[in-house]
Automatic annotation (TrEMBL):
InterPro entries: 6-blade_b-propeller_TolB-like (IPR011042), Glc/Sorbosone_DH (IPR012938), Quinoprot_gluc/sorb_DH_b-prop (IPR011041). This is Glucose/Sorbosone dehydrogenase domain-containing protein. It holds the Pfam family GSDH. Residues 1-44 form the signal peptide. Residues 44-66 have a biased composition (Low complexity). Residues 44-112 are annotated as: Disordered. Keywords: Signal. The keyword Signal applies. Residues 129-420 form the Glucose/Sorbosone dehydrogenase domain. Residues 67-101 have a biased composition (Gly residues).
Length: 458
């Protein structure tokens, strides 16, 4: 999934051989990805995305009915060099991103370096975990998205055997290095009373956001039946699905769409791919007021490549949009209600010194060993005071975890890499996502099966 680099790896190694011979052992391939991360970044992940000769797919379609998604047209024309992959944030809308600042102290502000930290294992028995969040108003449970189509529930630290929901019959089944499958989850801000939640998944023809419902009498169970289709648009061709979702404070839902491996989509504001979208889950056929005029009605921002994870600071409502690039792994930041921005892809893959659109606030070049940014969250917990207000994020390939505090515009403060402090590169094999709970704790997920909480050492 994750990762562009994973896709790039396919150009050097026959993935089908891996799948067919080692299908039952993720560790072998993961170890390969982890160890080869730096090399991949220099080879496969490097280089600009030459674009593809594919015509952009039929745009869109937000529809409340199933169907409507056109098949993705044949293979993409990427020649080697495409880097990337998936990135972006999890919104956590549910866990608080979209609004819930009530359980955190927004007055705390980091004053200096963080103390000694650790990655505390919460579970190491997950199956390809790619996202974690909490439900608004529920401090007992964590919900972990597994890529093959299940959401697992952890109650007071204990992983439950039965999944919360299993939609593996609806979604593609990923091989070891595939980006597709069940990719993210978000709870409705009023989930505690209405039981509504949303899943982003792929099938062979489409990227889909559907609404599901919690069981009326068991908080650990949901119905696998689709309540309504929120989005259904032509899917990616193996890479760059986007796939993050988060509710903003005004109740509208942000959804990222990747460029589907066709960089020509990102600057085309009529095309739904390569965008940050904004929609109303209560009226999916009508775009919310305030979206970018003149193009696809759901577009909020354009010029993105693959925002695998993005998040909203629950205290300031600032939007942190990571974007997996061809040469640069970017963090783009915008204040609430600003939008309508062109983040440059593919014209400008130039990090913080771009010549087109809005430049990244922070960026890391592939020559540093990074190759697939994993957007995180602004820390708002109480356990690590000097991390408060800092954005925490990582990279799938380098396994680095970094932090900084945004100072507005293109300024940053308190930049501090936390890789050694957390021993992230010694613990994780393939970083997939961060997540946030209701009280502001941050978590990180490893495709090899681990869920870890970022804690201060006691
Ligand atoms: Ca950019």
């Amino acid at each position: 999934m994750l990762f562009l680099c994973a896709s790039a790896a396919l150009q050097y190694f026959d993935p089908m051989a891996l799948f067919s011979t080692r299908n039952s052992s993720s560790v072998w391939v993961l170890a390969f990805l982890g160890a080869a991360g730096a090399a991949l970044s220099a080879q496969a992940c490097g280089g600009d995305d030459g674009g593809s000769s594919e015509t952009s797919g039929t745009p869109t379609s937000t529809t409340s009915s199933q169907g409507g998604a056109g098949p993705s047209t044949g293979g993409n024309g990427n020649t080697g060099g495409d880097g990337g992959s998936t990135s972006s944030n999890s919104g956590g809308g549910g866990g608080g991103v979209g609004g819930g600042s009530s359980q955190v102290d927004c007055g705390l502000e980091a004053q200096g370096p963080v103390p000694d930290l650790q990655l505390t294992p919460i579970s190491t028995n997950l199956d390809r975990p790619v996202f974690v969040t909490a439900a608004p108003g529920d401090n007992e449970r964590l919900f972990v998205v597994e890529q093959e189509g299940r959401v697992r529930v952890i109650v007071n630290g204990v992983l439950q055997g039965a999944p919360f929901i299993d939609i593996s019959a609806l979604t593609d089944q990923p091989g070891q290095v595939d980006e597709f499958g069940l990719l993210s989850m978000v709870f409705h801000p009023d989930y505690a009373t209405n039981g509504r939640f949303f899943l982003f998944y792929s099938d062979s023809d489409a990227s889909v956001v559907s609404e599901f419902a919690r069981s009326a009498n068991d908080p650990n169970v949901a119905s696998p039946g689709v309540v309504q289709t929120i989005l259904n648009f032509p899917g990616a061709v193996g890479q760059h699905y986007g796939a993050m979702m988060a509710f903003a404070e005004d109740g509208y839902l942000f959804v990222s769409s990747g460029d589907r491996g066709d960089s020509s989509t990102s600057q085309d504001i009529d095309d739904i791919h390569g965008k940050l979208l904004r929609l109303d889950v209560d009226d999916v056929d009508t775009a919310p007021p305030g979206n970018l005029p003149g193009g696809h009605p759901l577009v909020w921002n354009y010029g993105l490549r693959n925002s695998w994870r993005f998040s909203i600071d629950r205290c300031t409502q600032d939007l942190y949009i990571s974007d997996v690039g061809g040469n640069w792994e970017e963090v783009n930041i915008e204040p609430p209600n600003t939008g309508h921005r062109n983040y440059g892809w593919p014209i400008a893959d130039q990090g913080t010194e771009c010549t087109t659109g809005t430049c990244a606030v922070v960026a890391h070049n592939h020559n540093s060993g990074d190759c697939s940014i994993v957007g995180g969250y602004v820390y708002r917990g109480t356990g690590i005071p000097n991390m408060n207000g800092r954005y925490i994020y990582g990279d799938s390939c380098s396994l680095r975890i970094r932090s900084f505090r945004w100072g507005g515009g293109d300024t940053v403060a308190l930049e501090e890499e936390l890789t050694d402090n957390l021993n992230s590169d010694g613990t994780l094999q393939y970083m997939t996502s961060f997540g946030e709970d209701n009280v502001g704790n941050l978590y990180v997920l490893d495709l090899a099966g681990g869920l870890y909480r970022i804690d201060a050492q006691q």
